[in-house]
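Lecture notes, part 5. Sequence design as translation. It can be helpful to think of inverse folding as translation between two languages: the language of shapes and the language of residues. The source text, in structure tokens, appears below.
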């Protein structure tokens, strides 16, 4: 471990036990925060939205309607193998309104939260670059995000309406997202360049594994304990951040020398990395891939109930949705472990990022042509491999093309903004597609096109290989 040469900055982990300890807790902290995303976005929020909207659309005697049977009837009517009676048609009309309403409501809840996060994350990146404390530059922001975000998570559990749910989830996701941005910046702070790809790969493994554990845990426990499972996620994120901050204490930044602060310069600074040709194209490509991926994954629970044939019940869909991610785990783990190391060894990032984007696009084609449960599993497996390649190598590519490594927090905050922008726009677009077309097939077509275009953007990068 090398002590910092510049006062107020971090030490560098050259190898040995300090580096291994850093890798462990970096991975665990990422796993804790992505467990929240996996559980909330994949299972808990869609269920909460569906419960609220179901109560709005199916009232009185209709409150006991069997959605799975109604969706099977819809499929049979559309296929011409059944004719709906007047009463059945009334229920099918309610189903159409309910399906569009829950898709739009979920897209609203998720998109508003991501947009707020998108605006806050780069600001915090800049502020963390300038933070002077005896705990270092990044730790105070991580601790604040964990403690306050956990409090808002608990409040989300009790939201009675879509509007209140959107407000509370926005507050929760915004504060919780102070963690991954500052956590990723510690790689630029503490890890030498030749170990960045490896670190990003192992951290990506924690990222993905946390999401799987969070999603499966929610799918298994929701039918047993209900939305109280949210309390567990709140405690988990606090524990993960506490372990990283306490066991990997940073050097004090009280002696950090920073330039005088001016708000005009502050906001104009966000445009600096986007003026760089290579950074801008990597950023735009990340937006497109995140856009397509979010569009295809946001409504997984609803697709299991309304897109595939035969349709699943809400309980079965809740348990099945996380298994789609579990099926992709082996391929993703292998890709995460190998992609970063391979890119470090060959000294090239672009071919791997392009290959991952193309494979992601190909995966979208399968459920587009084959609306069945096996197709969703095949798509998830291929997309998992693609994402396993993409996560560490694209992050390493961003670090390679940083315009100013002394402003890594700012620039990587802008990089994170690219992911957030795609994740915000994807559900909104998908929700509108469902409302306009009355189904989910067109969502896959849109996702395919967006992820394919993202590969083209990487070809425009000049300096990185």
């Amino acid at each position: 471990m090398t002590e910092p040469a510049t006062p107020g900055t971090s030490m560098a982990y050259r190898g040995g036990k300090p580096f291994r300890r850093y890798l462990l807790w970096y991975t665990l902290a990422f796993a804790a925060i992505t467990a929240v995303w996996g559980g909330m976005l994949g299972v808990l929020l869609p269920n909460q939205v569906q419960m609220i909207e179901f109560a709005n659309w199916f009232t009185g005697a209709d409150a006991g309607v069997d959605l799975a049977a109604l969706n099977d009837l819809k499929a049979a009517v559309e296929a011409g193998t059944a004719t709906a009676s007047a009463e059945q048609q009334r229920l099918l009309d309610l189903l159409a309104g309910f399906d569009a309403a829950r898709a739009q409501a979920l897209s609203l809840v998720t998109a508003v939260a991501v947009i707020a996060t998108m605006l806050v994350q780069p600001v915090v990146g800049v502020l963390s670059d300038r933070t002077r404390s005896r705990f270092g530059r990044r730790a105070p922001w991580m601790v604040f995000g964990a403690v306050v975000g956990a409090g808002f998570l608990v409040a989300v559990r009790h939201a009675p309406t879509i509007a209140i749910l959107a407000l509370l989830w926005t507050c929760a996701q915004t504060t919780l997202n102070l963690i991954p941005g500052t956590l990723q910046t510690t790689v630029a702070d503490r890890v030498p360049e030749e170990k960045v790809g490896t670190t990003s790969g192992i951290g990506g493994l924690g990222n993905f594994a946390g999401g799987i554990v969070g999603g499966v845990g929610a799918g298994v426990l929701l039918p047993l304990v209900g939305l109280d499972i949210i309390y567990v996620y709140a405690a988990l994120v606090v524990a993960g951040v506490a372990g990283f901050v306490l066991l990997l204490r940073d050097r004090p930044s009280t002696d950090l020398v920073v330039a005088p602060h001016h708000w005009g310069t502050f906001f104009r600074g966000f445009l600096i990395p986007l003026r760089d040709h290579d950074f801008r194209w990597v950023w735009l490509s990340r937006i497109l891939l995140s856009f397509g991926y979010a569009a295809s994954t946001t409504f997984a629970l609803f697709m299991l109930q309304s897109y595939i044939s035969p349709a699943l019940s809400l309980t079965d869909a809740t348990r099945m949705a996380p298994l789609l991610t579990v099926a992709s785990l082996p391929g993703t783990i292998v890709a995460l472990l190998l992609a970063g190391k391979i890119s470090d060894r060959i000294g090239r990032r672009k071919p791997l990022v392009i290959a991952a984007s193309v494979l992601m696009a190909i995966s979208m084609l399968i459920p587009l042509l084959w609306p069945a449960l096996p197709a969703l599993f095949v798509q998830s497996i291929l997309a998992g491999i693609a994402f396993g390649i993409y996560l560490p190598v694209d992050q390493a590519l961003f670090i390679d093309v940083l315009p100013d490594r002394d402003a890594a927090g700012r620039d990587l905050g802008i990089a994170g903004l690219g992911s957030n922008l795609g994740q915000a726009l994807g559900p909104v677009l998908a929700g509108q597609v469902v409302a306009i077309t009355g189904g989910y097939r067109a969502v896959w077509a849109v996702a395919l096109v967006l992820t394919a275009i993202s590969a083209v953007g990487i070809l425009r990068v000049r300096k990185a290989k």
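The translated text above is only one of many valid answers, since several sequences can fold into similar shapes. The domain at 16-251+265-459 is CATH 1.20.1250.20 (Growth Hormone; Chain: A;).
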